[in-house]
Q: What sequence folds into this?
C-alpha cells in the first residue's frame, strides 16, 4: 500500500543532472585533484592540485533562463575550475532547445562533446543508453565517487531506484536536495487585494478560492477601472495544485499515473477526480477568472502579466513568493502562499514537487567520446562533497557567504549592495555569480526553511503556511524505469494517447468539449491504448516497490 502522511524534510527536486567528461581532442588530459575524489572517504579539500595541465571537459548544456552572463564567465564556475584543475569548454543552447539539440547530436553519434545534458523522457532514455552513445557509470561511481554514492544510497535512497535502468546500470547522476519547504508548491494569492476588497480570511477551500478570485475582479482590486484581475501563469502552472485539491497525487501535466490508497494504479487524466477538477477549472475560466491566454503563455509573457498588475493568483514554489512576485511586481504588492485547498470531499493534500522522470528532468551523461571517464566522475564527486556543495550553493567564503557557528550563512544582500552597478537583486547576483547552476552542473542543496522563504514579514507567513501543510504532504507517484519491451509499446502508442489527453484537457477547461461527452472521451483514450499503457505501468510500479 502506498505510504502517506507527514513529510518533514522533503526529498525533492532530484531533477536528473550529471555533468562530466573529458576532451575529445588531442589536448592534455589530467585527472582532477585526488583530494577532491578519494574513493576511501568523504572528501572536502582539493588542495593537492596536480601540476599537470588541467582536464579539459567539453559540455553541451543549457544556458540559464534568467542571467545574461554566460556560465563560462561566472566567478563560481571559475573557482570550481581552479579548485579541481579542470577547464570547461561549454557549448550552450537556449533552454527550450536543449532537448532537441541533444537528441540530434546523440542520434548522429559523431563529433560528440564529452558530456551532453539530456532532457529526455525515461521511456526514451534507456533505449538511447543501449545504443552505446553514452556509457554506464555504475562501476565508476562505486570505485571513484564516495560522495555521490553516499548521497544516493544514504541521504536520498529513493534516488538510486530512480536512476537505475532495467539492466541494473546507472547512466546519469541526479541533482538532489534536502530542502525544508523549497519544493512545496502552493497556490499564491494577492493578499493585499484580498484585504482591499474586504476578505479577511485566506481561502481554505476551492469554493472560497473561487469567491476570492471573483471578489478581486468584481471590486476592481487593482484600481484601474477594469475587471481584468485573474489567475494567470504558464499553462502547466494551472495544474500544479488543483489536482491535489481533487484527490490526485499529480504534480503537473506530466503526471499521467497515480495510485490509490489501496495500492491500485490508475490513469490520472481519465479518472472521475480529474473530471471534477476540469469542471471546477472550466467554471473559473468561463467566468473570466483564469487568464484567457494561459494555454499559450510563455515565461516572458507570464512575467509581463505580473508586472502589469493584473494577476490575482497563480501557483508556484511557495518559497519563491518574495523574490518572484512581491519584489518583481513592486508597489507594495503582497502575494502569499496559501495552505493546500480542500476540495469537494473536504480533504486537502500537498504534493512534493519535481522529481526524476517528471517536470524538468535533466540527465547529464558521459558520451562514448570521453577519454577520461574516471577523471570526470572524480571531478563531480568533489561537487557532491561538503566543500563542493558549499561552493555551488553558497559561493566563496567572505564574498558570498560567511561562517557562523561553523555553518555557511549567505551575505548576498550585502554583496548586491556593494555591487549595485552590476546587480539590482539577490536573484540576479546569484545567477550572475553562478550559484545554484541548474542546467549546467549537478549540485546538492541543503536549505533550511528560513533560507528557503527568505527574511521578512511575508516570508514568515509563508513559513507558517508550509509548516501547517506538512500534515497533508505526500510524495508523488513513482515507478521503475521501463524495459526495452515495455518502452517499445510506449513508443508505439504513447504519443497519440498523450497528445489526445492533452488536447482534451485544454478543451474541457476552455469549454470546447462538453462534460456530457466524458464517457466518450474515456472510451477513445482506451481505444487509443491507454489500457495497455496502464498494464505496463502496473508492472513498473510493482518493480519499484520490490527494488532495494
A:
Amino acid at each position: 500500500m502506498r505510504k502517506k502522511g507527514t513529510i518533514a524534510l522533503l526529498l525533492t527536486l532530484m531533477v536528473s543532472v550529471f555533468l562530466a567528461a573529458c576532451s575529445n581532442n588531442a589536448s592534455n588530459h589530467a585527472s582532477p585533484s585526488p583530494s577532491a575524489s578519494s574513493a576511501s572517504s568523504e572528501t572536502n579539500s582539493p588542495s593537492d592540485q596536480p601540476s599537470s595541465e588541467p582536464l579539459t571537459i567539453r559540455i553541451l548544456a543549457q544556458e540559464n533562463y534568467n542571467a545574461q552572463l554566460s556560465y563560462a564567465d561566472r566567478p563560481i564556475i571559475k573557482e570550481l575550475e581552479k579548485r579541481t584543475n579542470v577547464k570547461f569548454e561549454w557549448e550552450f543552447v537556449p533552454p527550450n532547445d536543449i532537448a532537441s539539440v541533444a537528441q540530434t547530436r546523440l542520434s548522429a553519434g559523431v563529433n560528440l562533446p564529452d558530456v551532453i545534458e539530456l532532457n529526455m523522457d525515461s521511456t526514451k532514455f534507456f533505449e538511447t543508453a543501449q545504443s552505446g552513445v553514452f556509457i554506464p557509470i555504475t562501476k565508476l561511481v562505486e570505485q571513484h565517487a564516495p560522495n555521490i554514492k553516499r548521497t544516493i544510497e544514504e541521504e536520498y535512497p529513493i534516488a538510486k531506484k530512480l536512476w537505475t535502468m532495467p539492466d541494473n546500470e546507472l547512466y546519469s547522476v541526479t541533482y538532489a536536495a534536502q530542502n525544508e519547504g523549497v519544493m512545496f508548491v502552493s497556490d499564491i494569492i494577492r493578499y493585499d487585494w484580498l484585504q482591499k476588497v474586504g476578505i479577511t480570511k485566506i481561502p481554505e477551500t476551492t469554493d472560497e478560492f473561487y469567491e476570492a478570485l471573483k471578489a478581486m475582479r468584481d471590486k476592481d482590486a487593482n484600481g484601474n477601472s477594469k475587471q481584468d484581475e485573474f489567475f494567470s501563469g504558464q499553462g502547466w502552472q494551472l495544474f500544479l495544485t488543483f489536482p491535489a485539491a481533487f484527490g490526485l497525487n499529480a504534480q503537473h501535466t506530466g503526471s499521467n499515473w497515480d495510485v490509490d490508497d489501496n495500492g491500485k494504479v490508475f490513469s490520472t487524466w481519465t479518472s472521475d477526480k480529474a473530471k471534477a477538477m476540469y469542471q471546477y477549472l472550466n467554471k473559473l475560466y468561463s467566468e473570466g477568472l483564469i487568464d484567457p491566454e494561459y494555454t499559450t503563455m510563455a515565461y516572458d509573457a507570464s512575467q509581463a502579466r505580473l508586472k502589469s498588475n493584473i494577476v490575482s493568483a497563480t501557483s508556484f514554489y511557495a518559497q519563491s513568493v518574495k523574490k518572484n512576485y512581491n519584489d518583481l511586481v513592486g508597489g507594495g504588492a503582497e502575494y502569499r502562499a496559501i495552505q493546500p485547498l480542500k476540495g469537494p470531499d473536504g480533504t486537502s493534500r500537498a504534493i512534493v514537487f519535481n522529481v526524476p522522470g517528471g517536470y524538468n528532468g535533466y540527465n547529464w551523461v558521459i558520451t562514448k567520446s570521453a577519454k577520461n571517464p574516471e577523471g570526470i566522475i572524480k571531478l563531480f564527486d568533489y561537487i557532491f562533497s561538503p566543500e563542493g556543495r558549499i561552493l555551488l550553493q553558497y559561493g566563496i567564503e567572505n564574498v558570498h557567504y560567511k561562517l557562523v557557528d561553523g555553518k555557511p550563512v549567505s551575505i548576498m544582500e550585502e554583496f548586491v549592495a556593494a555591487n549595485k552597478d552590476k546587480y539590482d537583486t539577490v536573484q540576479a547576483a546569484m545567477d550572475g555569480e553562478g550559484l545554484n547552476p541548474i542546467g549546467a552542473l549537478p549540485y546538492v542543496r541543503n536549505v533550511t526553511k528560513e533560507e528557503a522563504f527568505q527574511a521578512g514579514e511575508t516570508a514568515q507567513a509563508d513559513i507558517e503556511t508550509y509548516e501547517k501543510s506538512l500534515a497533508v504532504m505526500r510524495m508523488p507517484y513513482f515507478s521503475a524505469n521501463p524495459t526495452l519491451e515495455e518502452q517499445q509499446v510506449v513508443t508505439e502508442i504513447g504519443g497519440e494517447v498523450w497528445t489526445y489527453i492533452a488536447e482534451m484537457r485544454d478543451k474541457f477547461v476552455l469549454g470546447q468539449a462538453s462534460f456530457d461527452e466524458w464517457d466518450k472521451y474515456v472510451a477513445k483514450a482506451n481505444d487509443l491504448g491507454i489500457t495497455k499503457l496502464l498494464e505496463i505501468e502496473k508492472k513498473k510500479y510493482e518493480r519499484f516497490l520490490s527494488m532495494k
Q: What stands out?
A: Residues 322 and 454 are 8 Å apart (CA to CA). Residues 484-510 form the longest helix (27 residues). The chain is about 40% helix and 15% strand. The first strand starts at residue 11 and ends at 12.
